[in-house]
């Protein structure tokens, strides 16, 4: 007598294993780590955890390309921090028993103005070169970076010897002409540079003037942009001034 082999019955509606990765419980860590990991060697390091650090144990960096720390800008950020706190951690590295800022210096000063004792921070072990590259990358990717800060960051990257115009084009997705145009802003005399920071002159006007040497720039400034000047920039003839 033959017996038929029966296949085991499967339960209907058996739950399928989920392939979705668990959601990140702290998106601020992910966003901050992403900005930092764009530096050359950060991809080899695990994402650092956020720590609360005493402001008194943190010092400023000497290589931060962002230098526009005007009081009115810091005050606006400080007011926001009083209401909602520091939403994005700064990045620091250990140094001489304390910590040195890699990026996030505005948030640091604004937090101090807001009366905070501690600030959220990502602590990373970085060499001088790695810290400088991380600062340049993070600041160039911010939407509120000013034209002069952008120019200073490109210049710093080139002077480090670790980058060329071509590598910056590939890294930040800007054209070579754009980067070279921004770099010219580093040649502005201080009076015109300050007007650019205050948005009293446009980037296009500043770039055009920056093509000439400091003496010509000074004369253009005195004739067309200084206090009490009555001449319009539209009437300026830089080439004629340069020939004097």
Give the arrangement of secondary structure elements.
Blueprint: H1 27-37, E1 50-54, E2 58-59, H2 71-84, E3 90-95, E4 98-103, H3 105-113, E5 118-123, H4 128-140, H5 147-159, H6 165-172, H7 176-184, H8 190-197, H9 203-209, H10 214-224, H11 238-243
Parallel strand pairs: 2-4, 3-5
Antiparallel strand pairs: 1-5, 3-4
Helix pairs in contact: 2-3, 4-5, 5-7
Overview of this protein structure:
By secondary structure, the chain is α/β, with parallel strands linked by helices. The protein has a domain at 27-145: Conserved hypothetical protein from pyrococcus furiosus pfu- 392566-001, ParB domain (Alpha-Beta Complex). It contains eleven helices and five strands, in the order αββαββαβαααααααα. It has a five-stranded mixed sheet with strand order 1-5-3-4-2, with helices on both faces. A hairpin with a 2-residue loop joins strand 3 and strand 4. The model is unreliable at 1-43 (pLDDT under 50).
């Amino acid at each position: 007598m033959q017996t038929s082999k029966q296949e085991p019955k499967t339960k209907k509606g058996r739950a399928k294993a989920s392939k979705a990765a668990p959601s990140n419980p702290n998106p601020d860590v992910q966003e901050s780590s992403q900005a930092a990991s764009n530096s050359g060697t950060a991809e080899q390091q695990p994402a650092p955890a956020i720590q609360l650090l005493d402001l008194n144990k943190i010092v400023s960096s000497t290589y931060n390309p962002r230098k526009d720390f005007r009081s009115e800008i810091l005050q606006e950020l400080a007011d926001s921090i009083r209401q909602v706190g520091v939403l994005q951690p700064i990045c620091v590295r250990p140094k001489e028993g304390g910590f040195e800022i890699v990026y996030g210096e505005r948030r640091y000063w604004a937090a101090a103005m807001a009366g905070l004792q501690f600030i959220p921070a990502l602590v990373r072990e970085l060499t001088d070169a790695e810290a400088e590259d991380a600062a340049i990358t993070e600041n160039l990717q911010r939407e509120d970076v000013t034209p002069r800060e952008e120019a200073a960051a490109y210049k710093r990257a080139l002077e480090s010897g670790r980058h060329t115009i071509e590598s910056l084009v590939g890294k930040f997705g800007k054209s070579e002409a754009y980067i070279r145009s921004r770099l010219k802003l580093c040649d502005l005399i201080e009076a015109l540079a300050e007007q650019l920071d205050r948005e009293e002159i446009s980037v296009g006007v500043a770039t055009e003037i920056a093509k000439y040497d400091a003496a010509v720039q000074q004369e253009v400034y005195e004739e067309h942009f200084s206090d009490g000047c009555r001449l319009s920039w539209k009437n300026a003839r830089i080439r004629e001034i340069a020939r004097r």
